[in-house]
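This follows on from our talk about sequence and fold. I would like you to pick a protein and set down its sequence and fold. Go ahead and set the record down below:
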Amino acid sequence: MLNRTQLEKYADVLVWGLTTARTGKYSKGDIVLVQYERPATALTEILLEKLWDMGLNPVQRMGFTSRMEHSFYRKADPKQLVFIAPGEKELIESLNGRIFLRAPESLTHLSDVDPARIGKLLVSRKPLRDIMDRRENQGVYAWTLCTMPTEELAKNAGLSLRQYTNQVIKACYLDKAEPVKEWKKIYAEVQGIKKWLNSLQVDHLHVESDNIDLKITPGEKRRWIGISGHNIPSFEIFTSPDWRGTEGTYYADQPSFRSGNYVEGVRLSFRKGSAVKVDAKKGREFTVKQLKMDSGANKVGEFSLTDRRFSRIDRFMADTLYDENYGGRYGNCHVAVGSSYPETYAEKVEKTKEFKKEKGFNDSALHWDLVNTEKKTVTARLVTGRRIVIYENGIFKH
Protein backbone atom coordinates (compact mmCIF):
# COMPACT_ATOMS: atom_id res chain seq x y z
CA MET A 1 0.00 0.00 0.00
CA LEU A 2 0.95 3.65 -0.17
CA ASN A 3 3.30 4.94 2.52
CA ARG A 4 2.80 8.17 4.48
CA THR A 5 4.84 10.30 2.07
CA GLN A 6 2.92 8.99 -0.92
CA LEU A 7 -0.41 9.57 0.86
CA GLU A 8 0.61 13.16 1.58
CA LYS A 9 1.45 13.66 -2.09
CA TYR A 10 -1.82 12.03 -3.14
CA ALA A 11 -3.78 14.39 -0.89
CA ASP A 12 -1.89 17.38 -2.33
CA VAL A 13 -2.80 16.29 -5.87
CA LEU A 14 -6.46 15.92 -4.85
CA VAL A 15 -6.50 19.44 -3.40
CA TRP A 16 -4.94 20.68 -6.66
CA GLY A 17 -7.64 18.83 -8.60
CA LEU A 18 -10.45 20.25 -6.49
CA THR A 19 -9.23 23.84 -6.73
CA THR A 20 -8.36 23.59 -10.43
CA ALA A 21 -11.74 22.10 -11.34
CA ARG A 22 -13.68 25.04 -9.93
CA THR A 23 -13.90 28.23 -11.99
CA GLY A 24 -14.37 30.35 -8.88
CA LYS A 25 -11.92 30.38 -5.97
CA TYR A 26 -12.62 28.68 -2.66
CA SER A 27 -13.30 30.88 0.34
CA LYS A 28 -12.92 30.14 4.01
CA GLY A 29 -16.03 28.45 5.30
CA ASP A 30 -16.87 26.73 2.01
CA ILE A 31 -18.36 23.26 2.43
CA VAL A 32 -16.64 20.23 0.91
CA LEU A 33 -18.22 16.76 1.04
CA VAL A 34 -15.60 14.02 1.47
CA GLN A 35 -17.01 10.61 0.59
CA TYR A 36 -14.80 7.58 1.02
CA GLU A 37 -14.80 3.82 1.21
CA ARG A 38 -13.33 2.03 4.21
CA PRO A 39 -9.87 1.10 2.79
CA ALA A 40 -9.31 4.79 1.96
CA THR A 41 -9.48 5.89 5.60
CA ALA A 42 -5.75 6.71 5.89
CA LEU A 43 -5.88 9.00 2.86
CA THR A 44 -9.10 10.58 4.13
CA GLU A 45 -7.44 11.45 7.46
CA ILE A 46 -4.65 13.35 5.72
CA LEU A 47 -7.02 15.01 3.26
CA LEU A 48 -9.29 16.30 6.02
CA GLU A 49 -6.29 17.92 7.73
CA LYS A 50 -5.38 19.75 4.52
CA LEU A 51 -8.97 20.98 4.03
CA TRP A 52 -9.15 22.26 7.60
CA ASP A 53 -5.80 24.05 7.06
CA MET A 54 -7.41 25.80 4.06
CA GLY A 55 -10.22 27.07 6.28
CA LEU A 56 -12.81 24.86 4.58
CA ASN A 57 -15.56 22.86 6.28
CA PRO A 58 -15.30 19.23 5.20
CA VAL A 59 -18.30 16.97 5.75
CA GLN A 60 -17.16 13.36 6.14
CA ARG A 61 -19.24 10.46 4.84
CA MET A 62 -18.11 6.84 4.65
CA GLY A 63 -19.93 4.79 2.05
CA PHE A 64 -21.55 1.38 2.36
CA THR A 65 -19.35 -1.66 2.82
CA SER A 66 -19.92 -4.36 0.21
CA ARG A 67 -22.10 -6.32 2.61
CA MET A 68 -24.18 -3.25 3.47
CA GLU A 69 -24.72 -2.44 -0.20
CA HIS A 70 -25.74 -6.00 -1.07
CA SER A 71 -28.11 -6.14 1.90
CA PHE A 72 -29.66 -2.85 0.89
CA TYR A 73 -30.51 -3.99 -2.63
CA ARG A 74 -31.69 -7.38 -1.38
CA LYS A 75 -33.92 -6.11 1.44
CA ALA A 76 -35.06 -2.59 0.49
CA ASP A 77 -38.73 -2.29 -0.45
CA PRO A 78 -39.72 0.07 -3.28
CA LYS A 79 -39.95 3.09 -0.96
CA GLN A 80 -36.71 2.32 0.84
CA LEU A 81 -34.95 1.91 -2.50
CA VAL A 82 -35.60 5.54 -3.47
CA PHE A 83 -35.46 7.04 0.05
CA ILE A 84 -33.49 10.28 0.34
CA ALA A 85 -32.69 11.30 3.90
CA PRO A 86 -33.98 14.61 5.25
CA GLY A 87 -31.35 17.29 4.83
CA GLU A 88 -29.52 15.61 1.96
CA LYS A 89 -31.01 17.88 -0.70
CA GLU A 90 -30.25 20.89 1.48
CA LEU A 91 -26.62 19.76 1.87
CA ILE A 92 -26.22 19.27 -1.89
CA GLU A 93 -27.64 22.74 -2.49
CA SER A 94 -24.98 24.20 -0.17
CA LEU A 95 -21.94 22.25 -1.35
CA ASN A 96 -18.93 24.05 -2.79
CA GLY A 97 -16.89 20.92 -3.43
CA ARG A 98 -16.91 17.15 -3.29
CA ILE A 99 -14.10 14.59 -3.18
CA PHE A 100 -14.77 10.89 -3.59
CA LEU A 101 -12.08 8.41 -2.50
CA ARG A 102 -12.87 5.08 -4.13
CA ALA A 103 -11.47 1.89 -2.58
CA PRO A 104 -13.73 -1.05 -3.48
CA GLU A 105 -13.49 -4.19 -1.36
CA SER A 106 -15.59 -6.10 -3.93
CA LEU A 107 -16.40 -5.61 -7.61
CA THR A 108 -18.90 -8.42 -8.05
CA HIS A 109 -20.98 -8.41 -4.87
CA LEU A 110 -24.03 -7.09 -6.74
CA SER A 111 -23.91 -9.65 -9.54
CA ASP A 112 -27.08 -11.35 -8.27
CA VAL A 113 -29.01 -8.07 -7.94
CA ASP A 114 -31.56 -7.17 -10.61
CA PRO A 115 -29.99 -4.25 -12.54
CA ALA A 116 -33.45 -2.65 -12.68
CA ARG A 117 -33.30 -2.10 -8.91
CA ILE A 118 -29.94 -0.36 -9.21
CA GLY A 119 -31.28 1.68 -12.12
CA LYS A 120 -34.31 2.74 -10.08
CA LEU A 121 -32.05 4.11 -7.34
CA LEU A 122 -29.91 6.00 -9.87
CA VAL A 123 -32.98 7.55 -11.49
CA SER A 124 -34.32 8.61 -8.07
CA ARG A 125 -31.06 10.40 -7.23
CA LYS A 126 -30.65 12.12 -10.57
CA PRO A 127 -32.33 15.34 -9.28
CA LEU A 128 -29.50 15.62 -6.72
CA ARG A 129 -26.94 15.25 -9.49
CA ASP A 130 -28.78 17.91 -11.48
CA ILE A 131 -28.37 20.31 -8.55
CA MET A 132 -24.62 19.70 -8.49
CA ASP A 133 -24.42 20.16 -12.27
CA ARG A 134 -26.26 23.47 -12.00
CA ARG A 135 -23.99 24.70 -9.19
CA GLU A 136 -20.92 23.65 -11.16
CA ASN A 137 -22.13 25.61 -14.19
CA GLN A 138 -22.49 28.61 -11.88
CA GLY A 139 -18.86 28.24 -10.80
CA VAL A 140 -19.64 27.73 -7.11
CA TYR A 141 -19.03 23.98 -6.93
CA ALA A 142 -16.47 21.46 -8.20
CA TRP A 143 -15.57 17.84 -7.62
CA THR A 144 -12.74 15.39 -7.99
CA LEU A 145 -12.14 11.74 -7.21
CA CYS A 146 -9.43 9.12 -7.00
CA THR A 147 -8.90 5.40 -6.42
CA MET A 148 -6.97 3.73 -3.62
CA PRO A 149 -5.43 0.35 -4.49
CA THR A 150 -7.14 -2.67 -2.92
CA GLU A 151 -6.66 -6.41 -3.04
CA GLU A 152 -9.95 -6.74 -4.93
CA LEU A 153 -8.93 -4.32 -7.67
CA ALA A 154 -5.52 -5.97 -8.03
CA LYS A 155 -7.02 -9.47 -8.23
CA ASN A 156 -9.52 -8.52 -10.93
CA ALA A 157 -6.84 -6.70 -12.90
CA GLY A 158 -4.62 -9.80 -12.80
CA LEU A 159 -1.93 -7.97 -10.80
CA SER A 160 -0.36 -8.31 -7.38
CA LEU A 161 -1.26 -5.57 -4.89
CA ARG A 162 2.28 -4.20 -5.21
CA GLN A 163 2.03 -4.11 -9.02
CA TYR A 164 -1.34 -2.39 -8.81
CA THR A 165 -0.08 0.13 -6.27
CA ASN A 166 2.90 0.92 -8.49
CA GLN A 167 0.51 1.67 -11.37
CA VAL A 168 -1.36 4.12 -9.13
CA ILE A 169 1.90 5.75 -8.04
CA LYS A 170 3.10 6.07 -11.62
CA ALA A 171 -0.24 7.25 -13.03
CA CYS A 172 -0.64 10.00 -10.43
CA TYR A 173 3.05 11.03 -10.56
CA LEU A 174 3.47 10.21 -6.88
CA ASP A 175 6.99 8.96 -7.70
CA LYS A 176 8.00 12.55 -8.43
CA ALA A 177 9.38 14.91 -5.79
CA GLU A 178 6.58 17.41 -6.43
CA PRO A 179 3.68 15.71 -8.24
CA VAL A 180 1.54 18.85 -8.27
CA LYS A 181 4.19 20.52 -10.45
CA GLU A 182 3.95 17.60 -12.89
CA TRP A 183 0.15 17.97 -13.07
CA LYS A 184 0.45 21.70 -13.65
CA LYS A 185 2.87 21.00 -16.51
CA ILE A 186 0.50 18.50 -18.15
CA TYR A 187 -2.41 20.89 -17.63
CA ALA A 188 -0.50 23.66 -19.45
CA GLU A 189 0.62 21.42 -22.34
CA VAL A 190 -2.90 20.17 -23.01
CA GLN A 191 -4.28 23.70 -23.29
CA GLY A 192 -2.62 23.97 -26.71
CA ILE A 193 -4.20 20.74 -27.95
CA LYS A 194 -7.66 21.78 -26.78
CA LYS A 195 -7.23 25.23 -28.35
CA TRP A 196 -6.35 23.59 -31.68
CA LEU A 197 -9.26 21.15 -31.54
CA ASN A 198 -11.67 23.94 -30.66
CA SER A 199 -10.47 26.04 -33.59
CA LEU A 200 -11.62 23.40 -36.07
CA GLN A 201 -15.08 23.75 -37.55
CA VAL A 202 -16.00 20.08 -37.59
CA ASP A 203 -19.03 18.64 -39.32
CA HIS A 204 -18.36 15.13 -38.03
CA LEU A 205 -15.62 12.76 -36.84
CA HIS A 206 -14.89 9.35 -38.34
CA VAL A 207 -13.39 6.83 -35.92
CA GLU A 208 -11.76 3.76 -37.47
CA SER A 209 -10.02 0.72 -36.00
CA ASP A 210 -10.15 -3.03 -36.61
CA ASN A 211 -13.53 -3.16 -34.87
CA ILE A 212 -14.82 0.43 -35.01
CA ASP A 213 -16.45 2.32 -37.85
CA LEU A 214 -18.23 5.18 -36.15
CA LYS A 215 -19.47 8.64 -37.06
CA ILE A 216 -19.62 11.17 -34.24
CA THR A 217 -21.28 14.55 -34.81
CA PRO A 218 -19.93 17.16 -32.38
CA GLY A 219 -22.91 19.47 -32.79
CA GLU A 220 -23.40 23.19 -32.55
CA LYS A 221 -20.80 25.21 -30.60
CA ARG A 222 -19.23 22.20 -28.91
CA ARG A 223 -15.84 22.43 -27.29
CA TRP A 224 -13.29 19.87 -26.15
CA ILE A 225 -12.49 19.90 -22.46
CA GLY A 226 -10.52 17.70 -20.08
CA ILE A 227 -7.54 17.40 -17.74
CA SER A 228 -9.31 19.91 -15.56
CA GLY A 229 -8.68 18.47 -12.10
CA HIS A 230 -11.96 16.57 -12.00
CA ASN A 231 -10.42 13.09 -11.95
CA ILE A 232 -7.11 11.98 -10.50
CA PRO A 233 -5.64 10.71 -12.73
CA SER A 234 -7.11 12.12 -15.92
CA PHE A 235 -5.51 12.49 -19.33
CA GLU A 236 -8.57 12.37 -21.57
CA ILE A 237 -9.79 15.18 -23.81
CA PHE A 238 -13.49 14.86 -24.50
CA THR A 239 -16.67 16.44 -25.75
CA SER A 240 -20.36 15.69 -25.54
CA PRO A 241 -21.58 15.32 -29.11
CA ASP A 242 -25.02 15.83 -30.55
CA TRP A 243 -26.29 12.31 -29.93
CA ARG A 244 -28.64 12.51 -32.92
CA GLY A 245 -25.71 12.32 -35.36
CA THR A 246 -24.17 9.06 -34.11
CA GLU A 247 -24.01 6.34 -36.78
CA GLY A 248 -22.12 3.08 -37.18
CA THR A 249 -20.41 0.53 -34.96
CA TYR A 250 -18.47 0.91 -31.74
CA TYR A 251 -16.55 -1.81 -29.91
CA ALA A 252 -15.06 -1.81 -26.40
CA ASP A 253 -12.07 -4.15 -26.22
CA GLN A 254 -11.46 -3.20 -22.58
CA PRO A 255 -13.62 -5.11 -20.08
CA SER A 256 -15.42 -3.23 -17.33
CA PHE A 257 -17.04 -3.83 -13.98
CA ARG A 258 -20.35 -2.11 -13.41
CA SER A 259 -22.86 -2.53 -10.60
CA GLY A 260 -21.20 -5.75 -9.56
CA ASN A 261 -21.19 -7.21 -13.06
CA TYR A 262 -18.27 -8.10 -15.32
CA VAL A 263 -18.80 -7.08 -18.93
CA GLU A 264 -16.51 -7.82 -21.87
CA GLY A 265 -16.53 -7.16 -25.61
CA VAL A 266 -19.44 -4.72 -25.83
CA ARG A 267 -20.44 -3.99 -29.42
CA LEU A 268 -23.00 -1.30 -30.21
CA SER A 269 -24.56 -0.49 -33.57
CA PHE A 270 -26.01 3.01 -33.86
CA ARG A 271 -28.65 4.27 -36.25
CA LYS A 272 -30.07 7.79 -36.09
CA GLY A 273 -28.31 8.31 -32.77
CA SER A 274 -29.60 5.29 -30.86
CA ALA A 275 -27.99 1.92 -30.21
CA VAL A 276 -30.29 -0.37 -32.17
CA LYS A 277 -28.18 -3.49 -31.66
CA VAL A 278 -26.40 -4.36 -28.42
CA ASP A 279 -24.07 -7.30 -28.00
CA ALA A 280 -21.33 -8.42 -25.60
CA LYS A 281 -19.04 -11.44 -25.27
CA LYS A 282 -19.78 -11.53 -21.54
CA GLY A 283 -22.54 -9.77 -19.64
CA ARG A 284 -24.84 -9.26 -22.62
CA GLU A 285 -28.09 -9.50 -20.64
CA PHE A 286 -26.84 -6.98 -18.09
CA THR A 287 -25.66 -4.63 -20.87
CA VAL A 288 -29.03 -4.75 -22.62
CA LYS A 289 -30.80 -3.91 -19.37
CA GLN A 290 -28.45 -1.02 -18.66
CA LEU A 291 -29.17 0.52 -22.06
CA LYS A 292 -32.89 0.30 -21.28
CA MET A 293 -32.55 2.12 -17.95
CA ASP A 294 -34.28 5.19 -19.39
CA SER A 295 -34.89 6.83 -22.75
CA GLY A 296 -31.36 8.28 -22.92
CA ALA A 297 -29.41 5.20 -21.83
CA ASN A 298 -28.87 3.90 -25.39
CA LYS A 299 -27.48 7.17 -26.73
CA VAL A 300 -23.98 8.68 -26.66
CA GLY A 301 -23.26 11.31 -24.00
CA GLU A 302 -19.48 11.58 -24.38
CA PHE A 303 -16.67 10.96 -26.85
CA SER A 304 -13.12 10.96 -25.51
CA LEU A 305 -9.51 10.53 -26.64
CA THR A 306 -6.39 10.00 -24.50
CA ASP A 307 -2.89 10.91 -25.69
CA ARG A 308 -0.37 8.24 -24.70
CA ARG A 309 2.37 10.88 -24.27
CA PHE A 310 0.74 12.03 -21.03
CA SER A 311 -0.76 8.85 -19.59
CA ARG A 312 1.63 6.42 -17.88
CA ILE A 313 -1.10 3.80 -17.42
CA ASP A 314 -0.17 0.68 -19.37
CA ARG A 315 -2.15 -2.11 -17.66
CA PHE A 316 -5.82 -2.98 -17.39
CA MET A 317 -6.83 -1.80 -13.90
CA ALA A 318 -10.41 -3.11 -13.48
CA ASP A 319 -11.32 0.49 -12.68
CA THR A 320 -12.95 2.79 -15.21
CA LEU A 321 -11.14 5.84 -13.81
CA TYR A 322 -7.84 4.30 -14.90
CA ASP A 323 -9.01 2.31 -17.91
CA GLU A 324 -10.62 5.34 -19.59
CA ASN A 325 -7.24 7.08 -19.25
CA TYR A 326 -5.17 4.18 -20.58
CA GLY A 327 -2.02 5.22 -22.41
CA GLY A 328 -0.28 2.02 -23.45
CA ARG A 329 0.86 1.63 -27.04
CA TYR A 330 -2.03 3.32 -28.86
CA GLY A 331 -3.76 5.46 -26.24
CA ASN A 332 -7.50 4.97 -26.15
CA CYS A 333 -10.85 6.37 -27.11
CA HIS A 334 -14.05 5.84 -25.25
CA VAL A 335 -17.69 6.63 -25.64
CA ALA A 336 -20.06 6.95 -22.72
CA VAL A 337 -23.62 5.87 -23.22
CA GLY A 338 -25.99 7.94 -21.14
CA SER A 339 -25.67 11.40 -19.66
CA SER A 340 -23.74 14.16 -21.38
CA TYR A 341 -21.68 17.13 -20.19
CA PRO A 342 -23.51 20.35 -21.10
CA GLU A 343 -20.43 22.33 -20.04
CA THR A 344 -18.93 21.31 -23.39
CA TYR A 345 -21.19 23.94 -24.96
CA ALA A 346 -18.87 26.82 -25.88
CA GLU A 347 -21.06 29.68 -24.66
CA LYS A 348 -22.12 30.50 -21.12
CA VAL A 349 -25.86 30.08 -21.16
CA GLU A 350 -28.30 28.47 -18.78
CA LYS A 351 -28.38 24.76 -19.60
CA THR A 352 -32.08 24.13 -19.08
CA LYS A 353 -33.72 20.83 -19.95
CA GLU A 354 -35.21 22.49 -23.03
CA PHE A 355 -31.82 23.87 -24.07
CA LYS A 356 -30.14 20.46 -23.76
CA LYS A 357 -32.87 18.80 -25.78
CA GLU A 358 -32.62 21.41 -28.54
CA LYS A 359 -28.82 21.13 -28.81
CA GLY A 360 -28.70 17.33 -28.69
CA PHE A 361 -27.17 16.91 -25.22
CA ASN A 362 -28.22 13.50 -23.99
CA ASP A 363 -29.96 13.17 -20.63
CA SER A 364 -29.94 9.95 -18.62
CA ALA A 365 -29.39 8.48 -15.17
CA LEU A 366 -26.75 6.25 -16.80
CA HIS A 367 -23.17 7.23 -17.66
CA TRP A 368 -21.13 4.20 -18.70
CA ASP A 369 -17.67 4.63 -20.23
CA LEU A 370 -16.80 1.94 -22.78
CA VAL A 371 -13.11 1.89 -23.70
CA ASN A 372 -11.26 0.88 -26.87
CA THR A 373 -7.44 0.61 -26.89
CA GLU A 374 -6.96 -0.59 -30.48
CA LYS A 375 -4.76 1.18 -32.99
CA LYS A 376 -7.06 3.74 -34.56
CA THR A 377 -7.43 6.82 -36.70
CA VAL A 378 -9.81 9.68 -36.02
CA THR A 379 -10.49 11.90 -39.02
CA ALA A 380 -12.35 15.20 -38.84
CA ARG A 381 -14.45 16.27 -41.78
CA LEU A 382 -14.65 20.04 -41.60
CA VAL A 383 -17.67 22.07 -42.67
CA THR A 384 -15.62 23.10 -45.74
CA GLY A 385 -15.43 19.44 -46.82
CA ARG A 386 -11.72 19.15 -46.01
CA ARG A 387 -10.63 16.06 -44.07
CA ILE A 388 -7.80 16.07 -41.54
CA VAL A 389 -6.51 13.36 -39.22
CA ILE A 390 -6.66 14.66 -35.65
CA TYR A 391 -5.59 11.49 -33.79
CA GLU A 392 -3.48 8.53 -34.87
CA ASN A 393 -1.45 5.83 -33.10
CA GLY A 394 -2.47 7.23 -29.72
CA ILE A 395 -1.29 10.78 -30.36
CA PHE A 396 -3.09 14.01 -31.24
CA LYS A 397 -1.72 15.28 -34.56
CA HIS A 398 -1.47 18.92 -33.45
Notes: The longest strand covers residues 202-208.
